[in-house]
Request: fold
Amino acid sequence: MAFNGTWKVDRNENYDKFMEQLGVNVMKRKLGAHDNLKITIDQDGDKFTIKESSNFRTKDIEFTLGVAFDYTMADGTELHGTWTLEGNKLVGKFNRKDNGKELLTTREIVADEMVQSYHYDGVDAKRIFKKA
Reply:
């Protein structure tokens, strides 16, 4: 349950390039880099309830580890996939509905931060969160 709590984005690494690779236009990328994203995670066994809130939207997400579900990113990109727990790391494997390309996402606690890593079409990026 190490993920439980509210996390606020602190910094990004290569996030603009990642969004560009996803096909996000330059204006949305500029806004996305400063979205003040806050993620509240509540884990109960294999069930997760997540609230994402930013300058642009608030979204509630519920999923069960290993069970596929649909998710729409802030830019409108639609995904289908699953989250699993591998050791102390949440691993998300999603495919875009429009082109079938895979988006890999991981969340792990490193010291007192939650590191969310992305890999899409040859580009790696990170968003680092601190407890709010």
In short: The first strand starts at residue 5 and ends at 13.
